[in-house]
Amino acid sequence: MSGFLQSVEQQIDAAAFAAAIPADLLARLKRPNHVWEFEIPVRMDDGSEKRFQGWRVQHNGALGPYKGGIRFHSASTLDEVKALASLMTWKTSLAGLPYGGAKGAVAVDPRSLSPRELEALARGYVRAVASYIGPQTDIPAPDVGTNAIIIDWMTDEYMKIVGHPERAAFTGKSIEKGGSHGREVATGFGGYVVLREFLKLGNGVSKLETPFPSVAVQGFGNVGAHIAQILFKKGFKVVAISDSRGALYDADGIDIVKVMDIKERTGIIDRGICYSMGPSQEPCKTFTNEDLLTLPVDILIPAALEDQITAENAGTIQAKIILEMANGPITREADAILERRGVAVIPDILANSGGVVGSYFEWIQSLEGKYWSEEEVLAKIDAQLTEAFATVVAEKKKHHVSWRMVCYVRALTKVACVLRKM
Ligand code: NAD
Q: Which of 45, 83, 123, 199 could form a disulfide with 157 if both were Cys (CB 3.0 to 4.6 A apart)?
């Protein structure tokens, strides 16, 4: 079993113990309901055929149709998909959504494919899972390495297979193809809402001792770039950003709006493009992702991949708050070290749930032929997450345990209650 899946399962064990969930029910909470493993044949541009490994895991459907993204990443494995599908079950439960948890992936580096090959792979994935997904059964969305263009191809392929319009079968579509305003920024925006509510509690602010907290963001993709931009606009000082190629640092802060305005953002980090907020015209310092994690900042935001903060570097983290925008960025050993050191960790199943909440509102619009503006969608996400956060705070006041433990106990208890009646 991979370290990530083991971490998730150990967390479930610990929360089930705290919530006095019996062993037979715990086994049902851990075990995925369905696991599909398949190969997707793709005719490459040079005429050869290549077969890619793909997966869809439906973890638990007690609360409603399965929901979860599809990841295209060369290092994806079945264990990773199982762990991510499980996180989706707890995330949707905690956010108060009528969904179960699922996840999919293809072991591929999407940057290595031509647009035609990528489209063939996306359509091939849908042909492999078409009988298991649908607007009332399992609704996929984008994740690492996938985006609205890929989801549009997938939706189109699905509709060809079922033979009628069925846009609610996917979320994360482009606006032109029935997507929702606000969905692209939803995960980052949700992270901001959760952080804002957390800072209002006072424990974070008093620790920070500054009205303009400094922030380092690891990963500058859909999630990382949007939360960096939102926090920058709200007055936070974003001093470091990174992608898989490296990191940029400027103690005076980086103008994230200007960075986001660059049309072709791939390679901005290794090209050293940086707009400092400071008076000097010095270029930003380039350095490594490992160094970014241990910078002396108020808030650290891992927004790339799992297993980034481990037993090796947890002792050297200087941030006072970690907002987990990626799924599973902190290993269980690292989590224990951070808790001992008094670092507040806002867990992934709460921090990054804005994405699935945004997806939920896209799903409703697609099902009911509604059309909401970005302002309306973000207001709905704000209200949903503010309420979810308030329920977590109410529990946290009763139990002196970590934020992660409170979130898991709440999420598990809700699913367990429904399973008991099934
Ligand atoms: P993405 O593919 O758009 O971006 C990922 C970013 O991380 C890229 O900038 C990539 O270069 C960078 N990266 C990859 N490996 C890295 C490393 N070792 N160090 C630093 N940067 C690295 O993916 P995304 O959609 O932004 O997802 C990021 C994380 O957020 C994932 O864990 C994903 O599961 C999670 N998440 C995404 C959503 C969503 O709506 N997209 C919702 C909830 C959670």
A: 123
